[in-house]
Amino acid sequence: MSARFQLADRLEPLRSNVFADMDRAKARARAAGLEIIDLSLGSSDLPAPDAVLEAIGQSLSDSSTHGYLLFHGTQAFRQAAAQWYERKFGIAVNPETEVLQLIGSQEGTGHLPLAVLNPGDFALLQDPGYPSHAGGVYLAGGQVYTMPLRADNHFLPVFAEIPAAVLAQARLMVLSYPHNPTTATASLAFFQEAVAFCQQHQLVLAHDFPYPDMVFDATDIPPSVLQADPDKTVSIEFFTMSKSYNMGGFRVGYAIGNAEIISALRRVKAAIDFNQYLGILNGAIVALSGAQDSIRVSVDTFRQRRDVFVAALHQIGWQVALPNIALYVWAKLPERWSENSIGFCQALVEKTGVAASPGAGFGKFGEGYVRFALVHPPTVLEEAVRRIAQVL
């Protein structure tokens, strides 16, 4: 007997998701008896710092941490986040009005459209881009206008290409540099251009910023959007503990920026969830406030993996560029697969057990590429390349 109900139309654009699709392909490969080498998900395999785990462990036996956590209970975390930001980027931050704790930064980027878009409004998103950026817009009843990122423009959008009719209906622009999946970086001058453009067209500028520490050149810290908008006129930035501190499963991050936007996002958050467990925030405070040596160890580990993986690909005849940020390799597919990245990734996992993310899953302009996440030791990455050679 069929169900007598109808699901919301807003779910239709969410029917396909690159990570969910690859998860199903991995399940089929496991069922066929293949050993999976999963390079499809950017979830670090490295441990969180010992001091962080110790702080969380001590909190577990403190029953005062076990209850619901409202906004004012996150004060110590917000203060630590503001101080971290001021040390790193030199911009003063008010932890009471300009910082909001999040259950991972994806919660913030996913919910922000509910705070700034009315049904039918446009959001300007990068293509290729992170899938949750579009998902939040669709759930808010908004429309997506994609800004193409092309290799010949260093994977930066060209704002002059956005049609006037779209701009008249647009309320939000989302950027993310260092960029996932392309690994591109952006200069402070680019962000200054983006801020001026958003000020001119009265757009909220959201910057998804998971990778500020994950660069191989320690002297070249990626700029924050707030360095281009120090008065926080239009900008909000999202940071996660997942990459810098290997705390992906702990689901903790924060938003920082324009007080009015932060307040609006806080109202959305209050209607949907409470905050993260206080014990985890205690660990996050230690991470933000303590020595940052673990970050350099992680970056050096990923540097070694990058060098081994790229060299191995070159040895089998796949010439890929050497990325300057940790965790990913964005590889242009050989001609045979240049218009079928999904087919390549499905064939790869089903024939060899190696899972990667198809570029088309990140948007139309991601077609012709594949993203590998360097979340295994060098010996496993070399084995993955040996298997990749079977499909190439």
From TrEMBL:
Enzyme class: transferase
EC number(s) recorded for this UniProt protein: 2.6.1.83
GO function terms (MF aspect): L,L-diaminopimelate aminotransferase activity; pyridoxal phosphate binding
InterPro entries, A to Z: Aminotransferase_I/II_large, LL-DAP_aminotransferase, PyrdxlP-dep_Trfase, PyrdxlP-dep_Trfase_major, PyrdxlP-dep_Trfase_small
Cofactor(s) named in the record: pyridoxal 5'-phosphate
Record domain Aminotransferase class I/classII large: where: 36-388
Keywords annotated in UniProt: Aminotransferase, Transferase
Gene3D superfamilies linked: Aspartate Aminotransferase, domain 1 (3.90.1150.10), Type I PLP-dependent aspartate aminotransferase-like (Major domain) (3.40.640.10)
Signal peptide start and end residues: none
Pfam families: Aminotran_1_2
Protein name: LL-diaminopimelate aminotransferase
